[in-house]
Design brief:
Blueprint lengths: L8 H8 L3 H8 L12 H14 L2 E7 L5 H9 E9 L2 H8 L8 E6 L11 E5 L12 H11 E12 L7 H19 L13 H10 L2 E7 L13 E8 L2
Parallel strand pairs: 1-2, 1-4, 2-3, 4-5
Antiparallel strand pairs: 5-7, 6-7
Helix pairs in contact: 1-2, 3-4
GO molecular function: methyltransferase activity
Enzyme class: transferase
Protein name: Class I SAM-dependent methyltransferase
Length: about 240
Amino acid sequence: MFSPEGPTLRELAVQALSSVEHGYDLLAPKFDHTPYRTPDRVLDAVASALADLGPFGAGLDLCCGTGAGVDVLSRVCRDRVTGVDFSAGMLAVARQRAVPEGPAVSWVRADARALPFGPAFDLVVSFGAFGHFLPRELPGLFGQVRSVLRPGGCFAFPVVAPPRPGSLGYWTLLGFDAAMRVRNALWRPPFVMYYRTFRLGDVGRELTRAGFRAELRALPEFGRRPDGSPRARLLVARRLS
């Protein structure tokens, strides 16, 4: 699951007993050697799908972590790219990345729930961060995204089909979320990281309320499930006005 360069069990335990921000500060130097980093296969599929919708002007990677999503934006944006995250440690690693040729890249430390930008972006992407937001926070989060997009701009992120009920993946995610709830009931500060709270139906409704028109596009690189539905899709939400 983890490469030899990844964190030790002790380091993971210390992170898990920290706040979200401090936990990621601790994990940052080894984050890219964990399964929590979005796989290159996903990044490439999203970049390919966005290329069909672009090109875009300015792009923002929301909750950018060590900056893997910025590489996607650099492929589809012409003007400039910004990565924003509230972990100073993750941003420090991101700044050391070898950024591919393309638009200028900047890094900003800020909370996604209070973004320090005006409507300056044509595309916002996010990868693997939504488990850190409780369902009640989604309206505010999506409102923030809308506020930094120009009219007609896009908010895009990949979504993976949930595991079949009763499967190993289903029980694994259920067990992880249950353990996290117990941890947060017994220990402070809380570490918000849940895999089963970001439900697609709820997300679609909140995006509509926030002023987006959302659509799902299959990511063909991942094939289809036995019932014919895509294994992975790109949700593209366009700001209406």
